Amino acid sequence: MVKPWWHILFISGIALFITLSVFLLFYPVPPPPVSDMKYARETLALARENEADKYSGNLYREAWAYYDSAMANWRSENERFIYKRNYDKVVAFAELSSKKALQASETSLNNSTNLKINLQENLKDLDNLIKKINKSFYAYPLTSEVRNNISMGKMLARESRVAFNERNYLLAEEEIAKSKSLLTSSYDYANAHMRSYFKSFPQWKVWIDSTIAASQENHDYSIIIDKFSHKFFVYLDGEKISEFTAELGKNWVGDKKRRGDKATPEGMYRIVKKIEDDSTGYYKALLLDYPNAEDTINFRREKEKGSLSTAARIGEKIEIHGEGGKGADWTSGCIALRNIEIDSVFKYVGIGTPVTIVGSMYNLRQALNR
Amino acid sequence: MKNKILMGLTAIAMIAILASCGKKPQVEIDATNAAIEAAKAAEANVYLPDEFAAVQDSMNAIMADIEAQEGKLFKKFGDAKEKLASTSALANELASKVAAKKEAVKAEAETLLNDIKTVLAENSKLVPKLPRGKEGAAVIEQIKADLSNVDAAVVEAQTAYDNGAFMDALNKIKAAKAKADGLNAEIKEALTKARIRF
To answer: The pTM is what?
Structure first.
């Protein structure tokens, strides 16, 4: 009996399907890039362990971007028909990821080591700068802004040391930079200010020599006030016989320019009045002949130049008085001594006793080293 | 003959079933990702960064395993499902651990804040004892500026603490403590130099 044609066709179809299935079953499927991806993950973990996210951020992010691309490609290849899959791109991305992660690891180690060494140096420099500021300007009257900057700079230096000790090098670097900027600008400002102040030293020297010489020639008393060291000296016959601590005007650095500037004047003056009654609010006082002729000329010149406003008035009533010993420069430009000291000075001096007020009796180098 | 045909068809059907029985465990993946996100929302990455990174590493490895299975003709996701479950459990555990760690950090911050306040109180008592004399005014002014900056740092740390950012507060408090201690040492040094008892 002859089988119908459709029967033969059906069997042939089944046979073809089975053959095809068996062929496909044993046809080599492209292997998934498991080991490449695993290696990429291991290198990424190593990079993170070496803090590449902090010290080699770009390379580390690149490595992750390649890993993500590898995963995305893998997913996309897996969506294709099994025999049409090609993992070459996945492998290439995984390899790039590993390569970048290893580079990031190495760079991070190098960067953090170099940064650590640099930070150690910077911290040392910062400490030296703070020491220099403390030595030279701790007692120097600076503006509250500069003083605040110094304070902030010192605080940031401490903060950066804490960050450094906790191996937070990036934060330490940031804080060191801020601290350095504040301290350097404050130091430069104070240094320039002090140098400019000491430019008048030759003039002060002339006044000092002349005052001491006059005391020697006249066998009389003379007073010299050194504003920088806050010292009040009494001379007799050209010899120093007494020394007291003087408290000055709040803005004692620089010559007095106008009324109300809280500066103590610089110049050669004389005592014009001894006040022991209630007309002084400061126990006892020795009124000086401020402003003298030179002060008046200088004041007018400054006004003409426009460096003083037209409303500015010249200062007056500069005294050496009592009620000192407050431990601060608090007067409006006068020189304050303790009551016991003004008592002592009162005994020596009389009307006409020379009083020379100078910025410093020593040059800048000497003054700083004293 | 009929039986042979039936056997062939059964074999093909079994192959088809086997090939398609491994279905990507999307539900488990989503659940694990959600658990990791919850741990992150609980700030596990801030308070327990190493443990959080380990969980993320596990998840990445599992996703790679899943893709490896997806690439096979006969997919098996049983292992991946188990790993996803354990990673999910780890992430959940991490989220609960964060609370304990946060409490520990909070307690440390609180102790340090109290310590700073003690040092600041001592500093305030010591300042009036500072040596008077030619340097008095400027020194006191400088120390007052320092004190005000330390106060500002403490206020900043306290604000972070009050806002619940305990780790940030702890770092700020540590820095403020270093500042307060440094200032305390500076004042004591000035007093010692001046032979003033404190």
So the answer is: 0.69
